[in-house]
Specification:
This protein is an alpha+beta fold. It contains eleven helices and 22 strands. The strands form four sheets. Strands 10, 11, 12, 14, 15, 16, 21 and 22 form an eight-stranded mixed beta sheet that branches. Strands 1, 2, 3, 4, 8 and 9 form a six-stranded mixed beta sheet that branches. A five-stranded antiparallel beta sheet has the order 13-17-18-19-20. The longest helix has 53 residues.
Length: 486
């Protein structure tokens, strides 16, 4: 058996599927042998019909590849979305009417997926392929709940339709990969050189490119060790409570203190008053020299938040734990120091917390398979308690970051508007004086001999100092100061 990945693109009018062999990255589009000629001409040969119909009794039905001219067609993809407004008054009215028909709609969606997996099972059986992972494409505007609905639908039908699958993605979620649109677009260029299945078509079909991209993006995986070696860096970011228009919130500093990079680790010492928030962030590609001791937070993503330490003087350190085979974990060390920092009063070690490389976000994340459940999806982040237990981060922490970004953006816009207003005012004040000065210069120039004008054109007096960096050391320290003030 050859291990492979299945890529699925659920479009508004058709569904395309592609199998990608892990070892060779060979692409095999899954063809719908039951497609009607009309659907092939309009929506590409080999695609699966994804349209639902409203029958005469006002119910939702799935007719497979059979078209019913007397019924109203509705794209099935709309029923995966939370917001089902299409801009079409007729469709919007029908969709609003069917909010109480979730069970019937669910059965229709499962029938569509089951039709796709019937062809997938047949193809994999004929070619001795083993599907061990699925890549799903999705629209950029989908929310986490919509992604969860999509994953659960695919997982439920997958388990009953493909007997070879020996895992339960509905509980772990780790065998379903969501591929964002930016990855699909990047893969489209590569898929043009791959032909379709032999004997089916002479040229690749563009409509299958997204499903191919989903499969390719899922198969192009790297180890955590490779992710670290190519320039990733971890740091500590501090947040402090502030008051805003909508109440108090946590304002996170714009720069994180460097703690761990591929070459070395760094100790981080801080005196805390008890209300400071504290989290670990990662810059996937720092590509900076060893002189840097801070990372711009705008380049980072959150790894996990740490329980606020008690009031006192603390020292933190990050280390990597090698599990073997390129698998790494994160170790967090926390030491309580004397007020002057000369003695260690207490030592604490947390972890190792296993890392995983997520092909969807292309980030190194903490693997939460052991603690993830249907009720806990860790969408709002990971929080490490004082006892070292990983739990769901407070959703309010995400709202704090959003309010902090909004405050920063409003301050920047206010500063820019103030600069524009002052500049326009200065220009208005200068205009009368500039006109009067220009008239005086023209009158004087008419009275002066031509040689004087030529000498002025050639220049005179002290040479101007060229702009640029006179001292790299001064520029570097100035940059760090500006970075910390952001």
């Amino acid at each position: 058996m050859t291990y492979s990945i299945l890529g699925i693109d659920w479009g508004s009018t058709a569904i395309r599927a592609t199998v990608c062999v892990r070892k060779t990255k060979e692409l095999h589009p899954i063809w719908n042998h039951g497609a009607v000629p009309g659907h092939d001409i309009r929506y590409q040969t080999g695609a699966f019909n994804s349209t639902l119909y409203v029958d005469d009794r006002g119910g939702i039905v799935y007719t497979g590849e059979v078209y019913n001219q007397s019924c109203t067609p509705i794209p099935s993809k709309l029923f995966l979305c939370e917001d089902r407004e299409t801009g079409n008054p007729l469709l919007d009215g029908l969709l609003a009417k069917f909010r109480d028909m979730e069970k019937r709609i669910r059965r229709a969606l499962e029938a569509i997926v089951r039709t796709v997996f019937q062809e997938v099972t047949k193809f994999c059986t004929d070619h001795s392929l083993y599907i061990d992972e699925v890549g799903l494409s999705y629209p950029a505007h989908w929310m986490p709940q919509e992604l969860s609905n999509y994953e659960n639908l695919i997982a439920a039908v997958m388990i009953e339709s493909i007997p070879q699958i020996d895992f339960a993605p509905k509980s772990t979620g780790r065998h379903l990969r969501d591929v964002p649109p930016k990855d699909q677009e990047a893969r489209d260029r590569l898929t043009r050189e791959h032909g379709l299945a032999r004997g089916r078509s002479d040229q690749p079909q563009y409509s299958f490119n997204i499903s191919k991209g989903a499969a390719l993006a899922a198969v192009n995986n790297i180890t955590v060790q490779e992710f670290i070696n190519r320039g990733a860096a971890f740091g500590f970011q501090i947040g402090r409570p502030e008051k805003g228009v909508n109440g108090s919130f946590i304002s996170w500093e714009s720069a994180a203190t460097l703690a761990l990079n591929p070459d070395n680790f760094h100790y981080f010492r801080k005196r805390y008053g008890g209300s400071t928030r504290f989290k670990i962030v990662c810059d996937p590609l720092l590509q900076a020299s060893a002189k840097w001791d801070h990372i711009p937070a705008a380049w980072c993503y959150d790894v996990l938040e740490i329980a606020p330490p008690a009031k006192g003087h603390w020292e933190f350190c990050l280390r990597l734990h090698d599990f073997g085979d390129g698998k790494l974990g994160l170790i967090i060390r926390k030491n309580k120091l004397s007020w002057k920092g000369k003695a260690v009063l207490e030592k604490m070690t947390y972890g190792p917390f296993p890392f995983e490389y997520d092909t969807c976000s292309r980030c190194c994340l903490v693997n939460m398979d052991q603690v993830r459940s249907d009720d806990t999806d860790f969408e709002s982040g990971i929080f490490m308690t004082e006892e070292g237990k990983l739990v769901l981060c407070d959703p309010e922490a995400v709202n704090d970051q959003i309010r902090d970004l909004q405050k920063e953006n409003n301050d920047r816009l206010r500063d820019l508007s103030g600069i524009d207003a002052s500049m326009s005012q200065k220009m208005k004040e200068k205009q009368p004086g500039q006109q009067q000065q220009g008239e005086q210069q023209r009158n004087t120039a008419e009275k002066r001999p031509r040689s004087t004008l030529v000498s002025q054109m050639r220049g005179g007096g002290e040479p101007r100092k060229e702009s640029g960096r006179d001292d790299d050391r001064i520029q570097e320290s100035a940059y760090k100061k500006r970075l910390m003030k952001r």
